[in-house]
Design a protein that fits this description.
The complex is a heterodimer of chains A (about 250) and B (about 120). Chain A is an all-alpha fold. Chain A is built from seven helices and no strands. Chain A folds into two domains: about 60 residues, no CATH class; about 130 residues, Helix hairpin bin (Helix Hairpins). Chain B is an alpha/beta fold and about 120 residues long. In chain B, helix 2 runs parallel beside helix 3. At the A-B interface, helix 3 and helix 7 of A face helix 1, helix 4 and strand 5 of B.
């Protein structure tokens, strides 16, 4: 604002005085207005520049493409991916259990048939059997063999189904790995934001989280994924039993 | 013997149901959290409850406390089968009156052992 070009000059002042002395009121007013406007132009330019800078700064902040993309696309996408993992694992578990549930009655059936043949069969093996008993034994054994021949290919097919159902591990593993990558990226961005908004705030928040963690010692946490690194969890059923028996169970 | 299996994951309910069936228990019903389970228990003649801990709605530990509070249900044996493995939690469950505590992942042998132990103590 101290730009000399926009200050009123001695020449302009003298011109103004002479115009007034000559009674040229209108021209004098015009001259004064010119001087005044030139100073205002400079002010407007400066305010305009500031406004543009502010606008661009805000624009930059909001339109950091990674943050926008993360909140608008990546995070909802991650939710979908994790839903997909739940769906896939549920499907695999049900496929496996369907196959197992179909196998178990066949195994029980075979076991029962063999059991019912065994007493007479044992007598045959020790040469202690009547001819009519032998005939009926032959039919029974024939039945067992036929049933076994029918069931085994079925069992084989069902076992293959169980095997194939395990392909979820590969698929879900890949999906989860991508979500882990996103979580890392979000974490990095959040750290950047915390740096901008001050460390004091971050420290207070961290303390708050820490104390709420301590409060929830007996609250549900879900599967423990780092049991070997923690000393507040049990390492398996044996430790649960030890703990309970120490409590008088 | 009529058993209620409470877990928010249908696959886990199915696993437990299959294991129980293998052990000779065939009268089994299911609920997906404490809020569903409690009215079923109040209205049905259940003899045994197997419950998870961490479920949306009413959690297993709260279901256990509600059962112990209810005069008609307080005698009901409750077996907890859960991934919750913190010492504090196991102690909390014991204090709330749980009859057995199994951590996931578990085996059929463990389930049989705990059931036997519970029934032995009851009879």
């Amino acid at each position: 604002m101290s730009d000399k070009a926009h200050d009123i000059s001695l020449e302009q002042a003298q011109e103004l005085v002479s115009l007034l002395e000559e009674g040229k009121q209108q021209q004098a007013n015009q001259l004064l207005e010119d001087v005044y406007n030139r100073r205002n132009d400079k002010l407007f330019t400066s305010v305009g520049q500031l406004t543009r800078d502010l606008h661009e700064a805000l624009q930059d902040f909001q339109l950091d493409p990674r943050i926008v993309q993360m909140t608008e696309d990546d995070l909802p996408d991650a939710q979908n991916r994790l839903q997909y993992v739940i769906q896939k694992t549920e499907d695999a578990a049900n496929r496996t259990m369907d196959a197992v549930e179909a196998c178990l009655p066949m195994a029980d059936d075979m076991h029962q048939r063999v059991e019912s043949v065994m007493p007479v069969w044992n007598r045959l093996m020790s040469n202690d059997i009547e001819i009519n008993e032998f005939k009926s034994l032959c039919h029974q054994v024939d039945d067992v063999l036929k049933r076994c021949g029918e069931n085994m290919p079925q069992v084989h097919g069902l076992m293959t189904e169980v095997l194939m159902a395990q392909d979820y591990q590969d698929i879900t593993g890949q999906v989860i790995r991508r979500v882990i990558q996103l979580v890392e990226d979000v974490e990095k961005n959040l750290i950047e934001l915390l740096k901008i908004f001050g460390k004091e705030e971050a420290r207070r928040e961290a303390e708050k989280t820490e104390s709420s963690k301590q409060k929830s010692a007996s609250e549900a946490e879900g599967p423990i994924i780092d049991a070997d690194k923690r000393d507040d969890v049990v390492g398996g059923q044996d430790e649960v039993d030890d703990l309970l028996s120490s409590l008088g169970f | 013997m009529k058993i209620l299996v409470v877990d928010d994951f249908s696959t886990m309910r199915r696993i437990i149901k299959n294991l129980l069936r293998d052990l000779g228990f065939t009268n089994i019903q299911e609920a997906d959290d404490g809020n569903t389970a409690l009215p079923m228990l109040q209205n049905g003649d259940f003899d045994f409850v197997v419950t998870d801990w961490n479920m949306p709605g009413m959690q297993g530990i709260d279901l256990l406390k509600e059962i112990r509070k209810d005069d008609n249900l307080s005698h009901l044996p409750v077996l907890m089968v859960t991934a919750e493995a913190k010492r504090e939690q196991i102690i909390a469950a014991a204090q709330a009156g749980v009859n057995g505590y199994i951590v996931k992942p578990f085996t059929a042998v463990t389930l049989k052992e705990k059931l036997d132990k519970i029934f032995e103590r009851i009879s």
